Amino acid sequence: MLVAVPVHGAELLVGPNEPLKTLAAAVAQAQPGDTIKLRAGEYTDDFAMIDKPLTITSVGGVAKLRALGHIANGKGILIVRAPVTVENLEFAGATVEDHNGAGIRFEAGTLTARKVVFRDNENGILSGAIPDGRAVIEDCEFAANGAGDGQSHGAYFGEIASLRVTNSQFHDTLVGSHLKSRAAETVVERSGFIDGKWGTANYAIDLPNGGKAVIEHNTFERAVTTSNRAMIHFGGEIDNPTGSLKVVDNQFTSERPLSTGVLNHTSLPVEIANNRFTAVKWVAEGNKTAQHDNQVLDPPQ
After folding, report:
1. Mean pLDDT, the chain, whole residue set
2. pLDDT > 70 in the chain, percent
3. Do 257 and 300 meet the contact criterion of CB atoms below 8 Å apart?
4. CA–CA separation, 59 vs 53, rounded Å?
5. CA gap 27, 121 in Å, rounded
6. Cα–Cα distance, 47 to 171 (Å, whole number)
7. In degrees, to the nearest 5, what angle opens at C-alpha 50 toward C-alphas 46 and 53?
């Protein structure tokens, strides 16, 4: 039997001149359905675990949540275990002992991030396996995240039900992938994946479990110094993956020799159509893909 969760709907103001000085204090006081509003400014070492539906946003500018050292909870600045929406915030500096510190650690419920900046964290967002978990990322920026070990990423989503990324920018990720998703369904649209002049990113988008994925209307720019020549990776980490991949109406540009648009490690249906490839050696590598109506300019010899 489903039990209705009471929705409170109050607004709680947080700031140096407010009764509530910290996000943690506001989360502790909040009721399900409340909105926490952080006044613009920097909040250092202000960490919280959320287990009730909340919206967290800022007023008067951007509220910046910054970790100055290793986070004692061993996970991240914000731990999400309920339906949570975050808007107009910045998460920076998240580090922990095992190098998996995250701006947001997503562990249960649903996560919606809008107009949020994740900067200089070991992971911008990191999720575990959440079979019914859903994440929506809109108008966000992931800048210079990664611990430099190849095991941390701009954003990493484990085995969740669905992920949608829209109008977001991923750039200058350190050694890891800009975006890694094991979601059953992944949609990435109208977003940018930019390695940076001396970038060291691995894949731009890594879909190691396969799944049903659509990647459309995005921009990919591969730097000469990146650690992997492929920009999109599909499958390769589990046996008998399911799903399909569509890569449609994207722009691919590379300065890296012998670069590849899509590396397919599955026997699943993969369609690559109506994309523009500039200075990219191969449209696709790996298992057979359906390719049509792609424009290939200046392919390296």
Report:
1. 96
2. 97
3. yes
4. 20
5. 22
6. 25
7. 130
Is 75:94 a contact under the CB 8 Å cutoff?
no
Q: What is the C-alpha separation between 278 and 275, in angstroms, rounded?
A: 10
Residue with tokens 């499958």: 235
What are phi and psi for residue 267, nearest 5 degrees? Answer: -105, 20
pLDDT band at 4 (very low <50, low <70, confident <90, very high): very low
Instruction: Tell me which H or E stretch contains 138.
Output: strand 130-138
pLDDT at residue 288, rounded to an integer: 87
Tokens encoding 51: 């287990």
Residue 1 has pLDDT above 70, yes or no: no
Q: Which two three-digit tokens encode residue 190?
A: 């109208």
DSSP H or E segment with residue 23: helix 23-29
To which residue do tokens 């929406």 refer?
85
Give the full edge-to-edge strand order of the sheet including 205-207.
48-50, 76-81, 102-108, 123-127, 155-157, 179-181, 205-207, 230-234, 260-264, 282-286
Confidence class for position 227, pLDDT limits 50, 70, 90 = confident
b/e 63-84 (16+ beta carbons within 10 angstroms → b): bbbbbeeebeeebbbbbbebbb
CB-CB neighbours of 109 under 10 Å: 19
Closest among 139, 144, 133, 158 to 103, alpha carbons compared: 144
Q: Amino acid letter at 66?
A: R
